[in-house]
């Protein structure tokens, strides 16, 4: 044994063998065998396939076994690992926030396009930062991506959940220098923003709750992810699960600068009603955009210039 309890298990077990055994356990439980690689890499610190030839340690195996048991109990892989990739970021995630998903990466990309449009429209390329608010930020995935990928921005990440704010702040700390341009605050939608931003924001972006309370969801989602971030009451005029979406569409004009944009994630069957409502509310250039699977997923609407 190595000093401090970090051992190679008497030199008998390589991480590659552990991987094969873990794949078998997950497959037998009806889970994807490929998840074993994420678990083994996390436990061993492996960064390449060659690292799996190294010998397992007591500490690493204890971490591995704990993660496998949590996964077999039904906990989502992202929470088991405690982190997940989103665009260029490696985000801390746990049960306090939604798991970042590819659909939301598309929404972040649309927000970045609006940031670029606003930056290009500055007189003589102006030096004023593009002001962005990510409402219902959760882990901070969208807002922190904007700050990390566009140096000419200032970003406010807002959430009504104190638990989510704590996660977003932790992820902000891990952002490095771009964190200097980010404010993370607690509040319900626009209430979490400083009053002086009214009428000045270039982009308001959100992945709000948009699932109706009686909509069926996979057990792995409904049993583990926070209800507050998933479910929204119905709106009688606009349909199931659209209450939060309507709050954002109705409230954003008072916070957007002329020509600023609202970018929202929603369910495919909500996009038509929300686009119509946005146009009736006075937005222009209203457009619905697909996700990576080709399903309508996001709404972009602009305040008239």
Describe the structure.
This protein has 305 residues and is α/β, with parallel strands linked by helices. It has 2 domains: 3-73, no CATH class; 84-302, Rossmann fold, CATH 3.40.50. Helices cover 37% and strands 18% of the residues. The chain is built from 11 helices and 9 strands. The protein has helices at residues 15-28, 35-44, 58-72, 77-81, 102-120, 141-149, 162-173, 219-222, 227-230, 243-251, 271-281; strands spanning 83-86, 89-92, 130-135, 153-159, 182-186, 201-206, 256-265, 284-290, 296-302. The strands form 2 sheets. Strands 5-4-3-6-7-9-8 form a 7-stranded mixed sheet, with helices on both faces. The chain has a two-stranded antiparallel sheet with strand order 1-2. β1 and β2 (89-92) form a beta hairpin. α5 (102-120) packs across α6 and α10 runs parallel beside α11 (271-281). It is globular, with a radius of gyration of 22 Å.
Could you give the topology of this structure?
Elements: H1 15-28, H2 35-44, H3 58-72, H4 77-81, E1 83-86, E2 89-92, H5 102-120, E3 130-135, H6 141-149, E4 153-159, H7 162-173, E5 182-186, E6 201-206, H8 219-222, H9 227-230, H10 243-251, E7 256-265, H11 271-281, E8 284-290, E9 296-302
Parallel strand pairs: 3-4, 3-6, 4-5, 6-7
Antiparallel strand pairs: 1-2, 7-9, 8-9
Helix pairs in contact: 1-2, 2-3, 5-6, 10-11
